[in-house]
Amino acid sequence: xxxxxxxxQDVYLARQRIAGLVRRxxxxxxxxxxxxxxxxxxxxxxxxxxxxxxxxxxxxxRVLSLSAEERARGVLAVSTGNHGRAVASLARALGLxxxxxxxxxxxxxxxxxxxxxxxxxxxxxxxxxxxMEHAARLQREQGLTMVEPFDDPLVIxxxxxxGLEMLEDWPELDTAVVPLSGGGLIAGIAxxxxxxxxxxxxxxxxxERAPVMYHSLKAGRPVVLEEESxxxxxxxxxxxxxxxxxxxxxxxxVDDAVLVSEEEIAAAMAGAMRQHRLVVEGGGAVGLAAAxxxxxxxxxxxxxxxxxxxxxxxAVLQQVLGT
Length: 323
Ligand SMILES: *Cc1c(COP(=O)(O)O)cnc(C)c1O
Hints:
Blueprint: H1 8-18, E1 27-29, H2 31-37, E2 41-45, H3 55-63, H4 68-73, E3 75-78, H5 82-94, E4 98-102, H6 108-116, E5 120-123, H7 128-142, E6 145-146, H8 153-169, E7 175-179, H9 184-196, E8 201-207, H10 212-219, H11 246-253, E9 256-260, H12 262-276, H13 286-292, E10 303-307, H14 314-322
Helix pairs in contact: 1-3, 1-8, 3-5, 3-8, 5-6, 8-9, 9-11, 12-13
């Protein structure tokens, strides 16, 4: 029998649990993208979240739910950077041991940030999947508790708190545009929004380079793709060997999934900087890119776009602004 999926009640419980550790982020009006789409557009600024991405919300909900015994042994995470940084930050705040497994492809600024927070960072393998295998071994050998980046009901519920805040700040929103990789972010947000109003459209955006969830939705089952290098480094990676929650939820709750190119992501990062003085990383900018290129279908009348992270390497940002 299929495992039960998280509910909107879990999202409210998550909000209570994590309130002391996460920021309520602003929903900023964007005349720039409003003009592009011809309707009001607002940006949910998770690039301004503590640790620079929304990953803190889901990870906090998971880590705060650990037993005393699990806390004493410590936590483990596999990450392209932002999830690991969130787990490292929480471990520091709560006085836990944290081991973060990353691949050689992980951005240098993100590794440095995790080490600065006191986490033990283990670099292993060429891609996310190899880092994952290594982590599974450490988990067995050292009794650490794995904090999943997306495929966990507590993590999904934590990300869903973004949806609650969006609804409170803009009850009339009818379309949400959300970066999409493993699907924890969009599943949680869609859960919150659709339990308020089934008719709110939720659109996922991924990069053209190896968009695993996009192709999995088309195929009707999780697929595996070779990783490619992309400006949206936070969106790289598969759905896991045995996806339990996010694929089912995304299939059920997400209305559409669209892709953006590397050039479009770069233009969106530059636009966010020039128009709003906001530092947005590639993975955080895909929704902006889709709006700029009017890639959202019948966009709706009040569009909220989730800007999911801001942890971009200075050299990359400079390059993007130079073009
Ligand atoms: C992890 C991440 C995403 C994707 O979240 P999923 O839950 O894996 O879909 C999007 N943007 C940023 C900045 C991220 O760190």
